[in-house]
Amino acid sequence: MERSRVTRSDVEFESRYLDFVARTFDRVEVFGIDTRQSRARRRWPLRDLYTDLMTFGDAGAPTEMTAGMALAGGRRTLVRGAAGSGKTTLLWHMAVSAAHGQRTASGHLHEHIPFVLPVRGLQLRRRGLPRPTAFLDVARLVIADEQPVGWAERVLEAGRGLLLIDGIDEVGESERGEIRSWLGELLTAYPLCSYVVTARAQAVPELWLAEWEFASFELAPLNGEGAQQFITRWHAMTAGARDPVERQDLERKRDALLAAVVERPDLREMASNPLLCSLLCVVHDERNGLLPHNRWGLYDAALSMMLVRRDEERSISAHDVIAFGQEPQIQLLQHLAYWLQRNGQTDVDLARAHGLIAGLLPSHPELVQGTPETLLAYLRERSGFLQAPAPDRIGFVHRTFQAYLAAKAAVEQRDFGLLLARSDDPNWQDVVLMAFGHARRRESMELFNGLLDRAERDPANRARLHLLAAAALRYVPEVDPAIRERIEYRLAQLIPPRTPAEADALAEVGELVLEFMPSPDGLDPDCLEARMIVRTAQRIGGAAAQELVRRFAEARRLWAARAQRPPSRPAPEFVRVESWTTAPRRAAAGPWTLELSGAEAPPDLDRLATTVHHVVWRGAAPPYTVLGRLPLLRTLVIADSPALTDLGGLPGLPRLRTLRMTGCPALSDLTALARTGVVFLDVSPNPGAAALAALAGAVRLRVLGFPCVAGEFDLEGLRRSLPGVELVPHSGVRA
Questions:
Q1: What is the Cα–Cα distance from 646 to 643, expressed in whole angstroms?
Q2: Those residues with Cβ within 8 angstroms of residue 700's Cβ, 6 or more apart along the chain or in another chain
Q3: What percentage of the chain carries pLDDT values higher than 90?
Q4: Residues 611-633, buried b or exposed e (16+ Cβ, 10 A)?
Q5: CA 106 from chain center: how many Å?
Q6: Residues 300-322: pLDDT tens digits?
Q7: Cβ 76 vs Cβ 214: under 8 Å
Q8: In the β-sheet with 386-387, what is the strand arrangement from edge to edge?
Q9: Is residue 30 within 8 Å of 302, Cβ to Cβ?
Q10: Pairing between β-strand 113-118 and β-strand 161-166 as defined by DSSP bridges
Q11: Which helix (H) or strand (E) holds 196?
Q12: NACHT domain spans which residues (predicted)?
């Protein structure tokens, strides 16, 4: 329909609608900043905190473009990102920009009328997915009934619509196909409009909408500079609500937090996610500069801060309910979260939610002062954890906290069988991991054993379950040594991948794999191990995978620039240092590579032992005692030791993965390697068929490289002696 056919009533409504959209969505909705709880009881404009994030494009390749630049170049875009990466904020910013652009005839969105369509709202309609007339109802805009009859259709027919469809991941997998079909119908009916769709990266593949020529990109994490800017803007945004003394104190907290994020790797990781970065700012402010040591502590601090401390400090009550303690509130929230998780939902109708709360009241006499209705209304208003996606429904503001609370409920109810049964479901991954954090020692051991036992019975999901068990080690402060050894043994069989088939199989597991992949530190970036790591990351895709690929590419560039290898055989990798000191190129944080030339232990060995991952041993005196005191040792190079005949004194090195021996012509006995966790072994010169066949005792060995003259060595016989080990003659493996 031509623009000239727009009626006067359309023009009048559009002016009111655009003004309403600009004011409604120009607000910050970061965790912990509640306009009803803020000191000045005011709103913060979105522009005060909005950060235009960098992006990754097809196959996780960096685009060198911000999200705003990428969106400006196309009319159909799928935006993917991690939980809390800023997807909804991006769409709200687009809606506000379009509304302002229409009124000022400026910006690339100035010809568009924005429609914000949260997927949660789409699925609430009982008579099918909405037609354009119902778009404003989906967004819960109170002026929906004021629109002229047929106005939305006229906007879309003219190609003036900007459809912002947010949160494909917030409905079940079975419902996503229905959403996709509905979107296809819209594209057929209104092909000239612009469409932006968001989803979590693991919810839909990047080609999910390729049939309709959608471009796809992924929101990148905040880099160091971006996190610093975000923290600075957050403090500037909240400073206006405070008196001069409070503002001065806030500046001190800002500077302290900026310094802490630079100094602490754990905080840097958390600050790379916009949601967690905002939560860091809130918790740091509310706790007067005290910061948690990990993500788990951050969630605990948020619960304490939002459920009790704010209202206690302000003597606040609501809905005729006197503020009650933290534990009863957590019980109500986790009961609701667990029901949603078990039923695969992100929100629930109020009647059922009231019934869930009513079932808990008899066991919590401190709650008898309120009814289910008033208690739920209190939690929604005061906790900051709940929201109403529609007038008659309730759900969690962010699914991260739903998972955290659902895990707590599962552990308290000892629903370990259910957790183990759902452990292969990516939608339950966070819940299972957080359950380990909530569990007591005996309970966590039961979960570990259950995961490992199920992995043995379930070959199709074995890799995922073993990796999930390994990831859970971070959540448990004390693990039985036998269980840890069992997990590390399984992990050594998976990581790193040794063949293209293994790399591709690991990639099917997804991002869970990435945290276990070795870094390029101490590796030849052209070796088989490195190539398979890169292959896995490239097939996984996404921001974290691309960062790993980038690090290997940079290592390869640096390696090529400085390496001077003779053509006869490759030189062993090492970082030359004067003695036991940090290698110059690793003076910053990270694993250390050290060179040994004697058996004497340095006086600072205990300090160094916490960071040493890679060692080069040269010379005649074996440093066996020193090696035994390096629990994190992963890579060992033994070079230029002509008198070495065996490794009999080598201690058990369970974390050792890569061993290269070169320039040891007398070496003829490798049986001691059975005590290690070595996966990659390269030995030159060839120690002989008997020595190599004896490696059958090294049960974790998967790749063996050695020099071999064609026709003078029984390769087939060695393969029979070492089943499951890939033989790479001619020293094809370099540590």
A1: 9
A2: 489, 492, 493, 676, 677, 678, 679
A3: 19
A4: ebbbbbbbbeebbeebbeebeeb
A5: 37
A6: 777 776 675 444 443 344 444 44
A7: yes
A8: 347-349, 393-396, 386-387
A9: no
A10: parallel
A11: strand 194-200
A12: 75-412
pTM, two decimal places: 0.56
How many CB atoms sit inside 10 A of residue 240's CB?
11
C-alpha gyration radius of the chain:
29
**How far apart, in whole angstroms, are the C-alpha atoms of residue 715 and residue 719?**
6
pLDDT digits (tens, 9 = 90+) for 418-459: 999 999 998 898 899 989 989 999 999 999 999 999 999 998
CA 598 → CA 606, 619, 656, distances in Å? 17, 7, 20
Extract the tokens encoding 487. 């997990």
**Residue 117, φ and ψ in degrees, nearest 5:** -125, 90
**CA 153, 155, 156, 157 torsion: positive or negative?**
positive
Pairing of strands 215-219, 113-118: unpaired
Task: Determine the Cα–Cα distance for residues 576 and 44; give it in Å rounded to an integer.
Answer: 54
- Cα–Cα dist 467/429, whole Å: 11
**Helical H runs in 343-440?**
350-360, 372-383, 399-412, 416-421, 429-438
The first and second tokens of residue 284, run together, are: 């740091």
3-state DSSP call for residue 729? strand
Tokens of 635: 């890579």
Nearest alpha-carbon partner for 33 in 319, 373, 343, 310: 310
Residues 6+ apart with CB under 8 A from 244: none
Burial call 289-317: b when 16+ CB within 10 Å, e when fewer? eebbeebeebbebbbbbbbbebbeeeeee
* DSSP string for 526-542: TSHHHHHHHHHHHHH-S
Q: What confidence category does residue 1 fall into, taking pLDDT thresholds of 50, 70 and 90?
A: very low
End-to-end Cα distance, the chain: 67
